[in-house]
């Protein structure tokens, strides 16, 4: 272990910026193999520690709980590490390839279900050579991508019980949402083939319908925006189940003074699930939302709750939609049912809730306009968009019909 630490110290001291691109790529390949080998040894020791009930030494019930606390990794990552260790005890060829660095921890996780007791029993009943299966998966993992390996494993498991009952797709679904201290939500999960296809189809429809000119988002960013838009559409439709007599809605709490203060800090408002957002973000959400005033005493306890007021009434939204039709930010054109009604001059600063003071903006461009960009309507009725430096975004001359 001491030699390993010394080697890592030496690597950390090297000047990677001085390497040529080819040198960096070659060394990345070597480091990936080394990481696989380290992961293999970590997995081997996790398995040994679990068999020894070693976590009891530190007052922990399981290896998974010990890894979460002492290793500071997520519950999902700790669980997968433990499952990999258990599986490798039945897969010597895969374990050997893992130890040599030819197989990754992710690939071991894909193969691990093959080693479950019921799957091995089913294979033995059908006269399947488990050692040959082990060698085959080790060879495929060493030469092919994770996706190809996953298809092979799935095919093998399906062949073990071709006439058995169809698996319940919900057994294969999981979704964990973790909220960080700044309100950022981290997603981790998996879906069965049909559930995944439904989500991919819905996201693809939104991604392809929202491709503004000059869009530089990565595919991952497009998917994330589409997922938020999907949630936005469902919340706006009013068709979600009612929870304790209240329709689901996004709740943001902010002091009245901070809402009106242009200089309020980034963590001025709190979301319903505990995230912290800026006063400007709160004002953005308040553009096309409902306001419920709540008076509190000096101890922060509610005194009374005022009547909820819808900032943009339905008839005004309909008029704005008829006039604008789509998001009016230059180059966008997202459909009206994805859009918020934005106050050109925010109502908290004296702007009227009127047709003249309103504009349709999709979520992404509504955020842009509340953080530096600007939209305005010229006397001829044409919408114009300006960057934070004051320069105009010009897409091209309007088509005359």
TrEMBL record:
InterPro entries: DUF222, HNH, HNH_nuc
Record-given protein name: DUF222 domain-containing protein
Organism: Blastococcus brunescens
Family indicated by similarity: Belongs to the Rv1128c/1148c/1588c/1702c/1945/3466 family.
HNH nuclease domain span: 315-367
Signal sequence coordinates: none
Pfam families, per database record: DUF222 (PF02720), HNH (PF01844)
Recorded superkingdom: Bacteria
């Amino acid at each position: 272990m001491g030699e390993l630490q010394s080697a890592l110290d030496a690597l950390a001291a090297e000047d990677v910026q001085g390497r040529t691109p080819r040198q960096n790529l070659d060394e990345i390949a070597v480091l990936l193999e080394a990481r696989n080998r380290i992961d293999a040894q970590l997995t081997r020791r996790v398995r040994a520690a679990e068999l020894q009930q070693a976590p009891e030494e530190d007052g922990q019930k399981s290896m998974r709980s010990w890894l979460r606390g002492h290793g500071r990794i997520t519950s999902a990552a700790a669980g997968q590490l433990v499952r990999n260790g258990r599986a490798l005890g039945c897969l010597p060829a895969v374990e050997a390839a893992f130890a040599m660095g030819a197989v990754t921890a992710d690939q071991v996780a894909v193969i691990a279900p093959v080693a479950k007791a019921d799957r091995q029993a089913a294979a033995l009943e059908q006269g399947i050579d488990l050692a040959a299966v082990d060698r085959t998966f080790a060879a495929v993992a060493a030469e092919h991508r994770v996706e190809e390996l996953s298809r092979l494993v799935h095919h093998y498991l399906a062949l073990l019980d071709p006439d058995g009952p169809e698996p319940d797709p919900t057994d294969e679904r999981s979704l964990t949402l973790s909220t960080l201290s700044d309100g950022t939500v981290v997603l981790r999960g998996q879906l069965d083939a049909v559930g995944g296809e439904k989500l991919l189809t819905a996201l693809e429809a939104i991604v392809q319908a929202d491709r503004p000119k000059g869009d530089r988002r990565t595919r991952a960013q497009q998917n994330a925006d589409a997922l938020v838009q999907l949630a936005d559409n469902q919340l706006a439709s009013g068709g979600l189940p009612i929870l304790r007599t209240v329709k689901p809605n996004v709740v943001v709490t902010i002091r009245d003074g901070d809402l009106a203060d242009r200089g309020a800090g980034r963590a001025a408002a709190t979301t319903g699930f505990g995230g912290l957002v800026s006063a400007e973000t709160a004002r953005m959400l308040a553009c096309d939302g409902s306001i419920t005033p709540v008076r509190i005493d000096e101890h922060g306890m509610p005194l009374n709750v005022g009547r909820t007021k819808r900032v943009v009434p339905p008839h005004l939204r309909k008029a704005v939609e008829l006039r604008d039709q789509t998001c009016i930010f230059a180059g966008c054109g997202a459909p009206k049912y994805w859009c918020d009604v934005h106050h050109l001059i925010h109502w908290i600063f004296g702007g009227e809730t009127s047709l003249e003071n309103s504009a349709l903006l999709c979520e992404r461009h509504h955020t842009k306009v509340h953080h530096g960009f600007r939209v305005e309507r010229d006397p001829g009725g044409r919408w114009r968009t300006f960057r934070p430096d004051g320069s105009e975004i010009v897409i091209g001359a309007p088509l005359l019909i």
